[in-house]
Amino acid sequence: MMPRIDGVELCRRLKADVAMAGIPVVMLSAALPPHVSERLWDVLLLKPAPIGQLIKVIHSLLDESHPEVHEYSCEH
């Protein structure tokens, strides 16, 4: 649990901010979030998500969104 706001509200705020709206979001939750009509996250994983699955999702999102970041991180 997050203090003050929940994950759905955090995602709403991120997507409403022009500077943050294009950043991929991985929602990691212990329970299914309530039905929302807007697309607020790119991937939803339920806890306990295997670490390997989380890593694959992150790599996939980096490949799709920011290939230059992924290429840089692989060189080091």
From TrEMBL:
Domain Response regulatory: 1-62
PROSITE patterns per record: RESPONSE_REGULATORY
InterPro entries noted in UniProt: CheY-like_superfamily, Sig_transdc_resp-reg_receiver
Domain of life according to the entry: Bacteria
Designated name of the protein: Response regulatory domain-containing protein
